[in-house]
Specification:
The chain contains 2 helices and 4 strands; from the N terminus they run E-E-H-E-E-H. It is an alpha+beta fold. It has a domain of 39 residues.
Length: 98
């Protein structure tokens, strides 16, 4: 994602994210910008892949979503009301003139 500022400067956000992914994030979660758990001195204790694998190992209901085949889209038929047709009936105006 490359953006150009109003002053004409070019900013590459993907490059900025890659360069700063090991820097500790702001907050109290003790993670870096990638999501790795960090300890004292900014040392990586567990990577985000290890954290996710541990979560799904401990929570077997968290990954039971299984899609065998794609579902067919539901097509709803429009509701058509049948009206009684009468012969020689003229539509009267809503507001009658005096």
């Amino acid at each position: 994602m490359v953006y150009r500022t109003m002053q004409g400067k070019v900013i590459d956000l993907e490059k900025l994210m890659r360069e700063n992914e090991t820097i500790p994030a702001v907050g109290n979660m003790r993670v870096n910008a990638r999501g790795d758990e960090i300890g004292p001195g900014g040392k990586i204790i567990r990577t985000r892949e290890q954290i996710a694998a541990e979560y799904y190992r401990d929570n077997p209901k968290g990954n039971k979503i299984k899609i065998d085949r794609p579902r067919e889209p539901v097509v709803e038929q429009p509701v058509v009301e049948q009206t009684k047709q009468t012969k020689n009936k003229i539509n009267k105006p809503l507001i009658e003139e005096e």
